[in-house]
Inverse folding.
């Protein structure tokens, strides 16, 4: 591809004591691309996500976002990026939502943080986004604590996407939901990603979810990327023994 | 009531006063920014004005004239005892007249009479952190102040409008000072907020339990937060004062008997009696 990557990381290393959480990881994400990171628990997936989004500092390596050095930038600049061009969807909606603030206020927070000062417009935008994530606009003034788990997760996605970010980090967004709700959420994410042309970096241990959503896939084990490529290629023709084990462990329904 | 000579002037020792003055200077240099200080034990309980009384002690001089108001009134317990305290330990003159005072220590009101450049207004502050109710982590609120990351405060106002149809915050209404720092104006009624903007007098805020001092220097912009389509509106009871007939001052509702009788009177007692005297003189 001739286009420069949106985000590119080189030689990321991070050790927790004697354990290597990241051991020389390289990664590029291009605009509009969905990349899945799969691997077992403790393989460094979530750590990689946290390092890439600037929440955690690696021991060495570099992360570049559209010419900006993510690890070197000040906290003010990083926060600005986090509430405008980036988004972060947590596994547990409680980490990403304000549980005591109404659904409308949750969606409006990012708008108000970047300077929206017109109540009517904020509310119209919130209603629009509730519709896009299939939540009844009549629930706008209810607090998320009254919502089901699936609705909370959809609300978190609406809250993240309202400022039209370019890059969204998702940490197991379907974890902890039952299967039918998962399917609906995956469908929704897929539609929104295609609609908005988002680049998404999604961490998951659900191989089926990765196949459904991701264009490209990275397999991690013990802090290393052991295999990467187009999703269908990796899953249909796994090369690395660990990937072969992972693919063969998926339960067929 | 006589002046006690056994105390250092204005109760606090000189090095403590110097420490508080340093905090005040820093606070004046960074309008609206909360400066930590080593708050001392004072001979009155937290919540009764320990912060305000320490700031007053630090700025008080022998020729100053002190006025203390509590919810606008000069004759309530707190106002009377703090005035008596400084009369005893500093021997300064005290007054109930806003016009005559050089230092006014206040709890929850700004006097109705316009203050001048030669006056200092000292507020007693129970909770200095405006973001505290929304973000309980102090380290995080300090970071938000440092980065001017104040979207959260508007979320609170948004919630008010969504729930009540208007901004229902009627006291301790958050303000932006000098277009930079978000500040809690202490629990004064929102009615008083506009008086803080471009005020000629120096405004000092002391929070004793929370150990914070902050300030608004003279002629500094103080804007109440609002939305474009829900502008800030100072609220007052829609009545005239029963005693002086004023229609533009902040009113208290007072019960007058056991059968539900009530009247509205000015909360600023000095302003009210001045107007009554003027009315009598005119008659």
């Amino acid at each position: 591809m001739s286009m420069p990557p949106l985000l590119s990381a080189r030689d990321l290393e991070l050790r927790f004591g004697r354990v290597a959480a990241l051991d020389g990881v390289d990664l590029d994400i291009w605009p509009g691309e969905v990349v899945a990171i799969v691997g077992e628990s403790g393989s460094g997936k979530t750590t990689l996500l946290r390092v890439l989004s600037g929440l955690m500092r690696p021991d060495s390596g570099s992360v570049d976002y559209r010419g900006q050095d993510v690890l070197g930038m000040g906290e003010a600049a990083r926060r600005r990026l986090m509430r405008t061009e980036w988004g972060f969807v947590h596994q547990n909606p409680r980490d990403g939502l304000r549980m005591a603030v109404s659904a409308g206020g949750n969606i409006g927070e990012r708008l108000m943080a970047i300077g929206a000062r017109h109540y009517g417009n904020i509310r119209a935008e919130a209603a629009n986004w509730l519709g896009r994530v299939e939540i009844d606009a009549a629930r706008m003034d209810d607090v998320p604590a009254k919502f089901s788990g699936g609705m909370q997760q959809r609300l978190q996605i609406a809250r993240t996407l309202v400022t039209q970010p370019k890059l969204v980090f998702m940490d197991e967004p379907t974890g902890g939901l039952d299967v039918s709700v998962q399917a609906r959420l995956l469908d929704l994410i897929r539609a929104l990603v295609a609609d908005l042309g988002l680049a998404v970096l999604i961490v998951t241990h659900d191989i089926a979810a990765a196949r459904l959503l991701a264009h490209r896939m990275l397999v991690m084990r013990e802090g290393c990327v052991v295999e990467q490529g187009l999703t269908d290629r990796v899953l249909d023709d796994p090369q690395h023994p660990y990937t072969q084990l992972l693919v063969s462990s998926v339960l067929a329904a | 009531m006589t002046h006690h000579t056994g105390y250092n002037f204005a109760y606090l020792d000189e090095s403590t006063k110097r420490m508080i003055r340093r905090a005040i200077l820093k606070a004046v240099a960074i309008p609206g920014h909360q400066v930590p200080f080593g708050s001392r034990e004072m001979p009155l309980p937290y919540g009764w004005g320990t912060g305000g009384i320490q700031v007053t002690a630090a700025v008080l001089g022998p020729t100053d004239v002190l006025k203390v108001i509590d919810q606008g009134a000069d004759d309530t317990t707190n106002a009377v005892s703090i005035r008596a305290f400084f009369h005893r330990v500093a021997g300064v003159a005290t007054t109930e007249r806003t016009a005559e005072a050089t230092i006014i220590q206040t709890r929850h009101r700004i006097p109705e009479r316009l203050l001048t450049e030669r006056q200092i207004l000292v507020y007693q502050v129970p909770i200095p952190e405006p973001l505290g109710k929304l973000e309980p982590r102090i380290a995080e609120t300090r970071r938000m102040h440092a980065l001017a990351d104040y979207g959260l405060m508007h979320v609170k106002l948004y919630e008010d409008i969504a729930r009540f149809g208007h901004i229902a915050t009627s006291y301790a209404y958050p303000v932006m000072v000098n277009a930079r720092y978000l500040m809690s104006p202490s629990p004064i009624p929102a009615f008083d907020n506009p008086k803080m903007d471009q005020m000629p007098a120096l405004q000092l805020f002391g929070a004793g339990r929370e150990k914070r001092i902050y300030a608004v220097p003279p002629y500094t912009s103080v804007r109440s937060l609002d939305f474009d389509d829900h502008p800030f509106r100072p609220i007052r009871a829609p009545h005239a004062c029963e005693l002086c007939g004023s229609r533009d001052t902040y009113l208290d509702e007072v019960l007058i008997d056991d059968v539900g009788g009530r009247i509205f009177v000015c909360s600023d007692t000095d302003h009210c009696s001045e107007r009554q005297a003027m009315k009598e003189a005119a008659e």
In short: Chain A has two domains: 1-85+165-253, 99-163. Chain A has a mean pLDDT of 90. Chain A is about 40% helix and 25% strand. Chain A touches chain B at residues 75-76, 79, 83, 98, 101-102, 104-105, 108-110, 112-114, 117-120, 122-123, 140-141 (CB under 8 Å).
